[in-house]
Amino acid sequence: MRLEIHLDPVERGILPANYREALQAVIYRNLPRPLADALHDGRYWEGRRPVKPFVFSQLSGAISYQRAEGFNVGGQVWFCFASPATDLVEALADGILRHGMVRLASLSFAVREVAALPAPVIESPLVVRTLSPITVYRTLERDGRRYTQYYNPLAREFAELVAANLARKAEILRLPCSEPIQIHSLGISPRHRRLEQYKGTWIEAWAGRFRLEGPEPLLWLALHAGLGAKNSQGFGFVDVEPRLRSPERERRVTA
User: Fold this and answer.
1) Which CATH architecture has domain 126-240?
2) By C-alpha distance, which of 70, 77, 79 is closest to 110?
3) What does the CA dihedral 208, 132, 83, 100 come to, rounded to 10 degrees?
4) For 2-119+244-253, CATH number?
5) pLDDT tens across 40-74, in order?
6) Model pTM?
7) CA-CA distance, 1 to 178, in Å (whole number)?
8) Residue pLDDT, tens place only, 132-152
9) In the chain, where are the structural domains located?
10) Are 121 and 223 in contact (CB under 8 A)?
């Protein structure tokens, strides 16, 4: 299930470049405490490596990047949230609507609308675009020291790691997975590279368009749990392209 959450700023101002941390905090604050704790501690989906089963996008709308300052908010903004766990999505929608206000860093926002997005039409191949960039990496060791190696979409490891990550999520969720997903970049160039900061750590990620091929359950999971790593930190939200933005959602609710 997927949501689109619209927010009206109480006052216009600047969000820091790393506002995704504040956006993640909004999600946790608006969930029931037992559910939020289970997610945070990796107990909601338990496996060999715990998975936090949600992904969220960057902000869209009246927001623009101001070099050396952050992101200027000049009007209504929105972000998307998705999870294969319906109870999680419904709990977040209920919490945000009940509170009616959210705070992102130093700015307060009134909740304008929470809308359930239509179920996407899924068939292979599926062309998607990123609403937040995709990151994949390995932790390696050199001269006795561990370091993080990120991969770009032109490297073979990028597709391998995206496929392995999605297969692990499918295994935990017990989705049928007869063959791995294949991911192909479409027109990716150096300008699609993003360096994002999360809690003091710089993360390399990639925006753009990708073609996905594989079993429909895995394509569905890509749209509801994200592609690549760090989905619960706001990386890897993808949507079908083009998405037909009908004025009527499946379920339309306002604060």
Assistant:
1) 2-Layer Sandwich (3.30)
2) 77
3) -140
4) 3.30.70.1890
5) 877 777 656 667 889 999 999 999 988 778 999 99
6) 0.89
7) 23
8) 999 999 999 888 889 899 999
9) 2-119+244-253, 126-240
10) no
